[in-house]
Design brief:
It is a single chain. This protein is an alpha+beta fold. The protein has one domain: 2-Layer Sandwich (Fusion Protein Consisting Of Minor Coat Protein, Glycine Rich Linker, Tola, And A His Tag, Chain: A, Domain 2). It has two helices and five strands. Strands 1, 2, 3, 4 and 5 form a five-stranded mixed beta sheet that branches. Strand 4 (85-87) and strand 5 (90-103) form a beta hairpin. Helix 1 packs across helix 2 (65-77).
Length: 105
């Protein structure tokens, strides 16, 4: 993942159309159901929201490779233009981190 000129703090963070609840809902709809052996899985999905609002460079890491791969694929399937983050009123490249926990009942 190329992190040139990427920020993790901005005056205004990037916004998914309809807000983060809508992002979570659409993400869940796009996420493949996988067979999980563990009682709990923690994954972090990283992606860059570009100055244009498009998502690039998606990567996921976590305690279960299949879950990480499925989470990464789900973000890639959400081809939606975000409102980009800004610093001093100018759009910036923003590294977004999306923590994800799956627990069995």
């Amino acid at each position: 993942m190329k992190l040139d000129d990427v920020v993790t703090k901005a005056d205004t963070p990037p916004e998914f159309p309809g807000g983060m609840d809508n992002f979570r809902r659409q993400f869940a709809e796009k996420m493949d159901i996988i067979d999980v052996k563990s009682n709990s899985i923690n994954t972090r999905v990283y992606f860059i929201v570009e100055k244009t609002g498009y998502v690039r460079s998606v990567a996921a890491t976590g305690s279960d490779k299949k879950h990480s791969d499925a989470a990464e694929a789900a973000v890639r399937r959400l081809f939606v233009k975000w409102k980009p983050a800004t610093v001093n009123g100018e759009p910036v490249r923003y590294l977004y981190t999306f923590p994800l926990t799956l627990k069995k009942n």
